[in-house]
Amino acid sequence: MSPKHIFAIIIVLIIGYAALDSAFIVDERERVVVVELGEIVGQNYEPGLHFKVPFIQTVNSFDRRIMTFTEEIERVLTSENKNLAVDFYVKWRIKDTVDYYLSTQGSEQRTRDLLTEIVENDLLAEFSKRTIRQAVGDDRNEIVAAVQVQANQDAEELGVEIADVRIMRLDLPDEVSESVYERMRSERQEVIRTLRAQGDAAAQEIRSDAERERTIILADAYSQGQVIRGQGDAQAAKLYADAYQQNPTFYSFYRSLQLYRDSLGSDDLLLLRPDGELFKYFNPKPSADSAGR
Length: 293
Prior knowledge:
By secondary structure, the protein is an alpha+beta fold. The chain is 56% helix and 21% strand.
């Protein structure tokens, strides 16, 4: 192969490599800046195929998705000067590609280190305003909300946005843990006793109201029963009176029969005169003929 042929092949290879180096593809999950001699000359490229000056310009791509890292603070002081160990995680993403590149040179590890320092300082500041009881209680959501707001302000110059900050775990020293939990148990027991006393008082009041209502209902029922019974007795007496007036002789005979049934059928011993009033219906009346004789 002659030198001319070799030179032509080299030229073709150089042109081909230059052509390949002049094109780059931007993925939907990426942010890209084009740098020329240390100066940013291109940014905010849409997904797809783009071109640059070969060999002189370089492409720097970064992940545009939300990224997460976890960290631990071994010692956090509360307002009582008590120690806490805090585990937390941070979700972040690139907000401004140029600021991100200029402040971190596009290094994810450097970004993580800077964000860790920012979040740790903000957590230390928030915990120092609260007691242990507040820190492990309902104030935890307030702490992470305040940290996220402040950390976003501090991280703005890095060109990143903190999407979320969460406390995963809070550890107390053993001597502090026992005293805090014992105090919390005592407070819960006091709440339980108070609620139980309120429940007993309410139950007693309900029982008293029910007993009073029962007494009133029974009294009303007895009163109505007496009225109805009186009305029934009056109606019965009226019926008896009406019947007696229609045939007094039969009524007297009927009443005597009831008396015979109730008295003579018993085991008691009765000594009565046979010509007494009780046996008048057993004594036949003398006829007119026998009376004349």
